[in-house]
Structure prediction request, 173 residues.
Amino acid sequence: MLFITPKNQLITATIVFGVLFLIGFITNLIIKRNGKKSGIVKARINLICRYVSVSLFLLGLLIEAFVFGVKLEDVVVIFSSVFAILGIALFATWSVLSNVTSGIILFFSYPYKVGDKIKIHDNDLPMEAIIEDIRAFQLQLRLENGDLVTYPNSLILQKPVTLIGTFRSSSTY
Prediction:
């Protein structure tokens, strides 16, 4: 056991959550600053900040388990059981995870923003559209005829895309 007294465990637990809270706060500030500088929609910035906060919270729970004396073998059994259940449950919906991961990649490295007119070079469904929104799972694209198309994030990373023009309004920021 790493700590002898419950008082030391509580002090260490408080310090761990305090440090992780500070890391999360600083990380969220950096994400918000970079997002505003890049002209990314505020809702998208908040979504990425939420991903970071949840990840840090789960990391904090793992660290706290060790602080309060949980053995590594017990944590491995719990995590392997949880991941086995999640793996079976998400096998049919693996594309959801793919689209969320793609959404995070799009946030940090996608060269096109809301309001840009793009051309997607897809053999099955080539299209020209204006990006109306970039969400966690899909892009919302407005076609020239006014139709709204949702295009999965994972596909937008797999297809060649050309920027045709920018039609951003000041209300998108």
